[in-house]
Amino acid sequence: MSESSAEVVASAASAAAASAGNWRKAGVVGAAIGVVAAGAAAGVAIERLTVGRGMRQKARLALDSAGPYGSLRGTPGKAYADDGSELYYEVDDAEPEAPLAPRRRRLFGRKAPVPVTVVFSHGYCLNQDSWHFQRAALRGVVRTVHWDQRSHGRSGRGVAQTEDGTPVTIDQLGRDLKAVIDAAVPDGPIVLVGHSMGGMTVMALADQFPELIRDRVVAVALVGTSSGRLGEVNFGLPLAGVNAVRRVLPGVLKALGQQAALVERGRRATADLFAGVIKRYSFATRDVDPAVERFAERMIESTPIDVVAEFYPAFTEHDKTAALAHFTEMPVLVLAGVKDLVTPSEHSEAIADLLPDAELVLVPDAGHLVMLEHPEVVIDRLADLLMRAGAVPAGATVGGYGSTSSTAQPG
């Protein structure tokens, strides 16, 4: 290895090791992972010409070995969707001595109330680890459930898709969430938190199971998501370019999905270009912790191309605007990055317009995966939501922002 290569690798490893207590900014592309490649490729390629491929590969290996992100684990469980798909989830329990909120006593009578459970749903091409910082901050404070959507993370491939060729729909994801709730949270109050596709999943749950929302859900957080009209998003591309992409992309993705093994080999060979595209559509700032940036890449790289192809058509068909009415009688947080190119903040503003009592938070200098890019903002607003819902006492400390120790024990 050359001296300059060694210095880059050492620097990357040092940055990754230091990142455990660091709250720098990061994010991850959601619903348009395939849409943006053509528009970003030229600039990314020019940027990559200045650094050798071998050097970048060594730096990635150093970051992979040192980065703590996504290392938090809880008590595992499995739920089964209505088509038999296996859905993996983990539970972090609250500390037994945690005090009970007065509002929970009012809601559930004089007997000791069942603890509130916060259920986190992740976005397209991500997994439950995308909530790493929020999970770290809430550990021991409140019971949480983190699950992997079908065909993502540790969950099994969608049975209906692999056996019958049934298209993925947002409604199916809503039913999947219901199966997870039935298995992991059979009783007691619930707070629903969803990012991007996860927020759409929450809306689909409300649309199909309004009685669950009415009887058990005490608060909702919708982060970087949309209730519909995603077919109009231009992903920061010129109008002519995005129209061309929209015409050909569904067919291209379908063809790529049918040649998954070949595509995955090519995807690995073009990892540097792919990483640049991810960064472009994930982060709004330049000072991204290298270990967090690499963590984002790994999550997306782990999503097979045929899964990308299966899910993409569902977004243009998604419209759950009417379902938002089920959230009008509870505390709601609507939060988005102002520079989100995947689900633009205007979509969050449209949601808030239909929920006039909701708290709308638009985070400047933030992209699509705002909970990694500005985790302290998301945690602060989420903690406030939980307090308003009576999920945690008003005097509770939701601390440990960025507590990323890989030795942390399951809640």
UniProtKB/TrEMBL annotation:
<dbReference type="GO" id="GO:0003824">
    <property type="term" value="F:catalytic activity"/>
</dbReference>
<dbReference type="InterPro" id="IPR029058">
    <property type="entry name" value="AB_hydrolase_fold"/>
</dbReference>
<keyword id="KW-1133">Transmembrane helix</keyword>
<dbReference type="Pfam" id="PF00561">
    <property type="entry name" value="Abhydrolase_1"/>
</dbReference>
<feature type="transmembrane region" description="Helical">
    <location>
        <begin position="30"/>
        <end position="51"/>
    </location>
</feature>
<feature type="domain" description="AB hydrolase-1">
    <location>
        <begin position="117"/>
        <end position="375"/>
    </location>
</feature>
<protein>
    <submittedName>
        <fullName>Lipase</fullName>
    </submittedName>
</protein>
<keyword id="KW-0812">Transmembrane</keyword>
<dbReference type="InterPro" id="IPR050228">
    <property type="entry name" value="Carboxylesterase_BioH"/>
</dbReference>
<keyword id="KW-0472">Membrane</keyword>
<dbReference type="InterPro" id="IPR000073">
    <property type="entry name" value="AB_hydrolase_1"/>
</dbReference>
